[in-house]
Hints:
This protein has four helices and six strands, in the order H-E-E-E-E-H-E-E-H-H. By secondary structure, the protein is α+β, with helices and mostly antiparallel strands. The protein has a six-stranded antiparallel β-sheet with strand order 1-2-3-4-6-5, with helices on one face. Strand 5 and strand 6 form a beta hairpin. The longest helix is centred in the last third of the chain and has 17 residues, at 89-105. The mean pLDDT is 94.
Amino acid sequence: MNNIEDFRNYCLSFKGVTEKFPFDKTTLVFYVMNKMFCLVDIEAFDYCNLKCDPDEAEELRAQYSGIKPGYHMSKKHWNSVYFNSDVPAKLMKEMLVNSYELVVKGLKKTDKELLANMPN
């Protein structure tokens, strides 16, 4: 994902995803069932914030210099992942999927059912 459009299209390809600018005019936030799973600055496009399992978050930060505690987020549950860094594109995509799935896993039963019944 070399640019914001590719990144945006990938995030929007997940089931039930919506996007908003809740904080300012440049921070694009992706949601599943009104729960955030990814934030990215559309102008700078230098990193994204992704939800992560706390144990895995620590391991990834130790392995890659391009993965840091989530900027302006809970450092325990969020990582900032830098695009032009030592983080492989494949891992970036896996982390996006994991962030989405972590949020889906934490949804209320009724929201999970609504999501399951949405068209792809």
